[in-house]
Amino acid sequence: xxxxxxxxxxxxxxxxxxxxxxxxxxxxxxxxxxxxxxxxxxxxxxxxxxxxxxxxxxxxxxxxxxxxxxxxxxxxxxxxxxxxxxxxxxxxxxxxxxxxxxxxxxxxxxxxxxxxxxxxxxxxxxxxxxxxxxxxxxxxxxxxxxxxxxxxxxxxxxxxxxxxx
Length: 165
Known about the structure:
This protein is α+β, with helices and mostly antiparallel strands. The protein is built from 2 helices and 8 strands, in the order ββββαβαβββ. It has helices at 59-69, 85-100; strands at 2-8, 15-19, 29-32, 49-51, 76-79, 110-112, 124-133, 136-145.
């Protein structure tokens, strides 16, 4: 693990954090802050788990579903093939910083170190990040992907029942 100093946006104070040592997957995947089923209150349970065998089209949807159903995994990074491991590790740490500013019980963030493989209409927040990685200054945009919410006034309506012939 590598210690780096990062700043989020222009108003934030620099923070020194430890990046997880990620091994490139060689394919598209997700990086979880904690393993499935871990106890989020146990500081010893922190670890980095990866999920592969997902198609690029399903990465974002799988990550958003995962944090909604299993919030104990903590922040999740979408890791498209070819993105450097240290960028994805940095995005995951940014997800941890962002989640620390949210109310307890909030759904953990889903982040990506590059423009995520999703449709353009997917809501997202871009976090400008400055980091000192191995003695070199790096500027990166970390994308936080948001779950789509229905428009105001839109109500889920039951589908009509099939008519028997």
